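Notebook entry, structure prediction.
Reason for the run: the old model in the group folder had no record of what sequence produced it. Starting over properly, with the input documented here first.
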Amino acid sequence: MKGAAPVAVVGLVLLVFITLNTVLTAPRGADGIAPGERVPPFALPLATGNVRGDANIATHANDGSAGRRPACSVRGVGLMNVCELYERGPLVLALIVDSGSCPGVLDDMQALAHAFPGVGMASVVIQGERAAVRRLVVSHGLRFPVGLDRDGVLAQLFKVSSCPQVSFVYPGGVVQSKALLKRPARGVLRARIAALVAAAKARGWRQPA
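New structure, fully documented this time:
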């Protein structure tokens, strides 16, 4: 029918706008995982690896569309496993929306990593295109793992409503403090990581020399 195509295009544009607005605008109460709660388990492909597929977010075996195996058990070359990361020590985890959005916080994390031995830095790009995320990793000289959440399931799981969302996690996977919902000044990020380290030490974690 004449005129149907333009109407369809307008409808598609509107749908995309609503979707992006929902993801990037912080609604009331959508501020990440609350302090004291455990981060949801996930395993997903590294952007720089060769593994393909959607994120595994299963909490137990045969967990339907979430995954056949518990996410914490899915490990190996080319994979990011959040359980493996927080088992090693405190974790700073940045979730960003597509490879072109708010990558500056990743530069800040990279710059501060040397000052906090034993603290893991990691990022997940939500619904990013693999080649673009690889270029991001290379162009920013990132030396920490960057995962690729192709279908965007972590946006809901982590209550992502802004870009970036930076979580501070104790060894063992419990969230230490409220997530940052925008890129902070580097000094602020340094202070938050130092607070994470101090709190982790108070809980018995030993920082490597």
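Summary: The beta strands are 43-45, 79-81, 91-97, 120-126, 146-149, 165-169, 175-180.
The old model has been moved to the deprecated folder.
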